[in-house]
């Protein structure tokens, strides 16, 4: 099998993505078994309140960060198989099981064995497939799926199941994905459903917008839209600008849907505002919050 450009950092990318996704979840109870991840929480539209606005809105946004991280893209030419150690223990290994020289189609698998970075530990496997431009070795498409990847850090303990599909043939690049995350302590399951991300690269920044539905097991679902694209400067891991709109259940008092916005103030701060009574006025404000 010939060598070709592949995601040498695929393990690190997926690792980074999952740790972002899980920072906003926790608590509660759901009747899921340890061996299977299915969503059985509330499937009704959530009413956004002063008590849940920050939790729902931040978690919905972090699902977009998860997907955008996957598109970090191709690395250097690598062997058909290999492994690399985590900085604090464990290993991640990959195997490219097939590659078609005529079509550029490829597939393979990735395995985490207690792979550790900054005390974040991943175990489990993922499969990948896609297509390369056989002349330039650039990606045309990429799909990553995982059924039971576990993530632990301190008291956090999650298992994830999902699919991420990336289309590099269009500009801006698009990512479609569906991910379930089970808190193994509380047994709550969260669902990032029908998310679609569009990313655009600038000379020293990356912009992304997202849409989709986020399901919280206690509150139900909210619908996302990007009001102002999120901008990540090349020297920062947090956005410097952007506004996410989140829409919930209609409130009969005000006659409109309840809603919230996550507004980026700087690369270190943001705040969340909410219209909790459907009167088209944002009467609740979280105050200034720090990215963590």
Instruction: Tell me roughly what share of residues is in helical segments.
Output: 10-25%
Distance between the termini: 43 Å
Strand portion, in percent?
over 45%
- What are the low-pLDDT stretches, counting only 5+ consecutive residues below 50? 1-13, 27-34, 70-77
Listing every helix as H and every strand as E from the N terminus to the C terminus, the arrangement reads EHHEEEEEEEEEEEEEEEE
What general form does the structure show? globular
Tell me how many strands there are. Answer: 17
Record the SSE blueprint.
Layout: E1 4-5, H1 10-22, H2 53-70, E2 77-78, E3 81-85, E4 91-99, E5 105-117, E6 120-132, E7 139-153, E8 156-167, E9 173-183, E10 189-201, E11 205-216, E12 220-233, E13 241-251, E14 256-264, E15 269-275, E16 284-285, E17 289-290
Helix pairs in contact: 1-2
Describe the structure concisely for a colleague.
By secondary structure, this protein is mainly beta.
Structural description of this entry:
This protein has 292 residues and is mainly beta. The protein has one domain (4-216). It has two helices and 17 strands. The protein has helices at residues 10-22, 53-70, and strands spanning 4-5, 77-78, 81-85, 91-99, 105-117, 120-132, 139-153, 156-167, 173-183, 189-201, 205-216, 220-233, 241-251, 256-264, 269-275, 284-285, 289-290. The strands form two sheets. It has a 15-stranded antiparallel sheet that branches. Residues 1-13, 27-34 and 70-77 have low confidence and may be disordered.
């Amino acid at each position: 099998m010939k060598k070709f450009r592949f995601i040498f950092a695929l393990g690190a990318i997926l690792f980074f993505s999952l740790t972002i996704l899980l920072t906003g979840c926790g608590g509660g109870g759901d009747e899921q078994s340890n061996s299977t991840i299915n969503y059985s929480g509330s499937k009704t539209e959530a009413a956004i309140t002063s008590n849940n606005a920050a939790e729902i809105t931040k978690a919905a946004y972090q699902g977009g960060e998860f997907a955008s991280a996957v598109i970090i893209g191709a690395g250097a030419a690598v062997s058909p198989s290999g492994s690399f150690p985590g900085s604090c223990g464990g290993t991640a290994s990959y195997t490219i099981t097939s590659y078609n020289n005529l079509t550029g189609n490829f597939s393979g698998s990735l395995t985490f064995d207690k792979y550790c970075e900054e005390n974040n530990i991943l175990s489990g496997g993922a499969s990948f497939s896609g297509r390369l431009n056989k002349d330039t070795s650039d990606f045309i498409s990429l799909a990553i799926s995982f059924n039971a990847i576990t993530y632990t850090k301190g008291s956090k303990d999650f298992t994830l199941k999902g699919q991420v599909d990336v289309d590099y043939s269009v500009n801006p690049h698009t990512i479609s994905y569906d991910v379930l995350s089970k808190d193994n302590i509380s047994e709550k399951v969260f669902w990032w459903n029908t998310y679609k991300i569009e990313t655009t690269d600038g000379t020293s920044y990356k912009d992304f917008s997202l849409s989709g539905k986020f399901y919280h097991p206690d509150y139900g679902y909210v619908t996302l839209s990007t009001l102002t694209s999120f901008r990540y400067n090349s020297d920062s891991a947090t956005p410097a600008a952007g506004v996410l709109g989140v829409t919930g259940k209609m409130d009969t008092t005000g006659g409109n849907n309840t809603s919230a916005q996550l507004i980026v103030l700087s690369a270190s701060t943001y705040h969340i505002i909410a219209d909790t009574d459907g009167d088209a006025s944002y009467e609740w404000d979280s105050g200034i919050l720090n990215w963590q």
